[in-house]
Amino acid sequence: MTEIVSLPITSWDQPISSEQQTLAIDALESGNVVLLPQLPFVVRDDERPLLESDVMQGIKNVSLSPSNGSFKGSKGSEAEQQQLQAMMMRFATATRTLANNLLSPYEHGLQQARASFRPVEIAGRPTSWRKDDTRLHVDNFPSSPTLGKRILRVFSNINPNDQPRVWRLGEPFESVAKRYLASVPKPMWGSSAVLNALGITKCPRSAYDHYMLRLHDSMKADLKYQAEVDQHEQLFPANTTWMVFTDQVSHAAMSGQFVLEQTFLLPVEFLRHPAQAPLRVLERLTGRGLV
Ligand code: SIN
Ligand code: FE
Fold first, then answer.
1. Residue ranges of the domains in the chain?
2. Which atom of ligand 1 is nearest to the CA of 133?
3. CA of 259 to the centre of ligand 1 (A)
4. Which pLDDT tens digit goes with each residue over 201-212?
């Protein structure tokens, strides 16, 4: 079962002992969630109006690329957009500082990808089954193949009304893979070059990415699995932060509104226990190299 490992961290830039670093890394790589119940991302008073539903009405996901400043999906006045961008940049900087301190053995491997702001209530949001994150799944990016890199995500619940973010957590990655791998067709020869030439993917999709996408879809399409697999509900209270390898941990977001999220990518060479990485698990189960 996915465990929740809580650490008493109270600031984004505090130095962290090597014992705590090892504890966090071992927990994450074993498919657990690291919860920082005393670490809020503080929204400033002048930013509070951004968390009123009418400012961000109809917006699902605002994204910011901290490396080049690319900012997408926001609405509102010029001033509101600038304020949101600045708040997200502050979050991106905070999570990078935290990652460098808490996960310092990863420091030279962690690549900071997009940050997102998710202002919509999840419960009852209309969406297709494939995009429905209230169904248990493991993450991957259909148009941005990771080529085996890990997806590490840091979330802060900034809900102003004390509303928790409610997740379900499911079975270990290896169980997911063993359950569905036999029914996943092998990648079609040449298909990755075609997808890339058509601009559907940003680089050729590796066999690893092919299998990860199919696992994601198989889980979400299987309603019996969603109802019956071993799982538990997990609440992340307002003003807490948590981190998790979402490519490995089977998760679903059931309800909640207003979360900030930062994605990091990490090549498997930087892991302490690479045998637990989805890439290595899938290579073992399929008996071949997948990138
Ligand atoms: C997800 O990664 O499936 C959604 C997580 C969230 O928005 O809480
Ligand atoms: Fe997800």
1. 4-286
2. 3
3. 9
4. 888 889 999 999
